[in-house]
Amino acid sequence: MSKQKGGQRKGKTSVEDSKKGFKKSFTKGNTPFKKTDPKPKKPSNPNEIRLNKYVANSGMCSRREADVHIATGLVSVNGKIVTEMGFKVKVGDEVRYDGARINPEKKAYVLLNKPKGFATTTSEGKGRTVMDLVANATASRIKPIGRLGRNSKGLLLFTNDDAIVDKFTNSKNGVARLFHVELDKNLKLEDLKKIQEGFKIQGKLIAVEEISYIDGASKKEIGLKIKNTGNTIIRTIFDYFKYEIESLDCVAIGHLTKKDIPRGSWKHLTEQELNTLKML
User: Fold this and answer.
1) What is the model's pLDDT at position 87?
2) Are residues 232 and 261 in the same domain?
């Protein structure tokens, strides 16, 4: 083999290379190269979650099983079947498994004894709201079922369980709520009977479950049970008969009462309370 100038063989690295830190010789075509830094990873979006993790977190199955369910077309996002592995969903997306809506958060059921002065809304910029009162109750995104006016008080149930919400709002049976109503004057017996029997306002039938005077109190104080989730209907009833409501207090929701819940405080439903509620 011929030698090149300086006594170095063709294809070998030079002495200068060795001085640069290369202790071994390298044949041509196998010269060393400097490693480049890998491209920085794109930061993950905290408002997105992989679909298989979303399904698994809902408690339906394991993440591996979720992959199978997604691949077979059992999972939809915002009404569209998704079979793509690695698909990410955003906060607020509607995800359904085999037609039923699912939620990756832990189910939470919080019962609040609402005081006056708090609006029943999840919107910001409305002053003090019931969401301020339950802010530390759970990390799950709970919402109130139904409404109580800013100046109304009493029980309000919060949850992220769509099945429970449907029980109150979409079921033909509904869940009864009991109110303590205080009027500006005594309720006439004839008006009480008309309310109990049901009556029409602009052709629409207005009906309640029960209405009665409260034992030991004046005729201004009434017990009223309805299955409507709002309290506007109560004001509509008494406005029709020319009474003004001075105080409105929800004292019971189904079997749930204010016992051991001071005004402005909340509690988580017990397992027994939740099971009873599901059976109503």
Assistant:
1) 93
2) no
* Contact of 213 with 164, CB cutoff 8 Å: no
The DSSP string of 200-212 is: EETTEEE--SEEE
Q: Is 154 left (phi over 0), alpha (psi -120 to 50) or beta?
A: left
The encoded tokens of residue 191 equal 């008006």
CATH code of the domain containing 79: 3.10.290.10
The residues near 39 (Cβ < 8 Å, ≥ 6 apart) are none
- At 138, which CATH number? 3.30.70.580
Asked whether residue 167 falls in the same domain as residue 263, the answer is yes
What pLDDT, on the 0 to 100 scale, is given for residue 103? 79
Give the integer Cα–Cα distance in Å for 87 and 97. 15
The pLDDT tens digits of the residues spanning 62-86 come to: 889 999 999 999 999 999 999 998 8
Burial of 179 (0-12, 13-18, 19+ CB in 10 A): buried
Q: Give the residue numbers spanning the domain of 262.
A: 109-172+257-279
Contact in structure between 174 and 253 (CB atoms under 8 Å): no
Four-residue CA torsion sign, 11, 14, 17, 19: positive
In a domain, 93, yes or no: yes
Q: Do the beta carbons of residue 94 and residue 100 sit within 8 Å?
A: no
Task: Assign 22 a pLDDT band (cuts: 50, 70, 90).
Answer: very low
- Can you tell me which residue has the tokens 């995104």? 141
Band the pLDDT of 33: cuts 50, 70, 90: low
| Spatial CA neighbour of 58 closest among 101, 12, 89 | 101
